[in-house]
Design goal:
By secondary structure, the protein is of the alpha+beta class. The protein has 3 domains: 2-48, no CATH class; 51-91; 93-160, OB fold (Dihydrolipoamide Acetyltransferase, E2P) (Beta Barrel). Helices cover 35% and strands 21% of the residues. It is built from 5 helices and 6 strands, in the order H-H-H-H-H-E-E-E-E-E-E. A 6-stranded antiparallel β-barrel has the order 1-2-3-6-5-4. It is elongated, with a radius of gyration of 28 Å. The termini are far apart.
Length: 162
């Protein structure tokens, strides 16, 4: 029995330097000690090289696609959908095709776009007669509002529903 314990102790001592130590791994590089994210990233980029131009372009395209998907949502809704998201890319507007128009008496016009977004026109106007297939633009307005621009150039207040 004592031989077994001696063998285990010897084996433990012999392999202790081989097994990873999580605390040592974290502090093994000087960059790990930098608290602020931007400075820590700059340190790692300097030590190991920054991403390639192609990787940066692919990341930018993915972030722009995500921004289009989130366009018209409030910051709380965006965080709720993407809790781990860093600083979102901000766009000023988007273009899409109308795929469905719902008109009910006494209710706002509901517009579904090809990108899957659903918008309500929050003002009634004869300028805003939309049809399936119309190309529209949606732009940011003041105080968190949005304007849906019709093919005829009319700007109508709109609110994103989904």
């Amino acid at each position: 029995m004592s031989r077994l314990l001696s063998a285990i102790a010897l084996l433990t001592l012999a392999t202790a330097h081989v097994l990873p130590n999580p605390a040592a791994a974290q502090s093994s590089h000087p960059c790990a000690e930098i608290v602020r994210s931007k400075e820590r990233l700059a340190c790692y980029d300097q030590a190991f090289g920054a991403p390639s131009a192609a990787a940066k372009a692919a990341d930018r395209a993915a972030r722009e696609a995500e921004a289009k998907e989130n366009f018209g949502l409030g910051s709380k809704e965006i965080r709720k959908r993407n809790p781990d998201m860093e600083q979102p890319v901000v766009i000023e507007g988007l273009e899409s095709t109308v795929t469905e128009v719902k008109i009910e008496t006494g209710r706002p016009q509901i517009i579904t776009l090809a990108n899957g977004q659903i918008w309500a026109l929050t003002e009634a106007s004869i300028r805003g007669n939309l049809r399936v297939g119309d190309e529209v633009s949606i732009r940011k307005g003041s105080f968190g509002s949005h304007r849906l621009i019709t093919p005829g150039g009319a700007g109508l207040r709109a609110k994103r529903l989904r």
